[in-house]
Amino acid sequence: MAYADQQMSGNRIAAFIIVAILHIVLGYALVTGLAYDVVKKAVQRVTTVDIKEEVKKEELPPPPKKLDLPPPPAVAPPPKMTISAPQQTITTVTQAPPPAPPPPVIVPPPPSAPPPPRMTPKSAVPRGNPGSWANSNDYPSRALREEREGVTRFRVTVGADGRITGCTITGSSGHGDLDEATCSLVSRRGRFTPATDGEGQPTTGSWGSAVRWQIPKD
Fold first, then answer.
1. Among 163, 162, 152, CA closest to 208
2. Are the beta carbons of 140 and 176 closer than 8 angstroms?
3. What is the pLDDT of residues 121-153, one digit of tens each?
């Protein structure tokens, strides 16, 4: 019996301990659950609070101060002017007006004449007898055999030194060899006093003459 009583008392103690532990667990659960609900409700209250931001109103600048200006000077209106247009008279012309005179013709003055020379210009003059420049001994042999005759007219150009610088046939004899012999003989043998200008200085001049080609008679 004693062993059974001891066993029963031991079971009771264990039961009490288990019940105590259950109470502690339930109490802890109740406490933590209540605390969670309280915290949850507090958070909801905090999050549901409307936060209104204060909007700062922009301050407008003060209106400008009005300056006390003197009144503008009084301007009198311009006087009224009455302009009367002159009356135009229209004249009808039945006849056409005469034509305008021609413009004057300006005639330039005649050119002034050059001053007269201080000295009279002179032509070239032959020295000696020009008849000796060609003679019967100068007759071309062929023309002599053929008995051809004629008169050859010529003009020579004389330089400032008195020498002949050119010869031109101005009238042919009709035979080329007689004309050619004329210029050749005169250019080789002719000598001149040169021409002079208005200042008396030697200058280029000219001189003309003729040679008669005639077969001499024995």
1. 152
2. no
3. 889 999 989 999 998 899 999 999 999 999 999
Query: What CA–CA distance (Å, rounded) separates 154 from 162?
Result: 17
Can you tell me whether residue 104 is helix, strand or coil? coil
What per-residue confidence (pLDDT) applies to 41? 58
The per-residue pLDDT for range 178-210, each reduced to its tens digit, is: 999 999 999 999 999 999 998 889 999 999 999
- Cα–Cα distance measured from residue 146 to residue 174, given in angstroms and rounded to the nearest whole number: 14
Residue 193 belongs to what H/E stretch? strand 192-193
Nearest to residue 207, comparing CAs of 174, 168, 175, 177? Answer: 168
Measured from the Cβ of residue 123, the count of other Cβ atoms closer than 10 Å reads 13
- Return the SS3 of 195: strand
Q: How much helix, strand and coil, in percent to the nearest 5, is found in the chain?
A: 35, 15, 50
Cα 61–chain centre separation:
63
Q: Residue 150's beta-bridge partner residues? A: 213
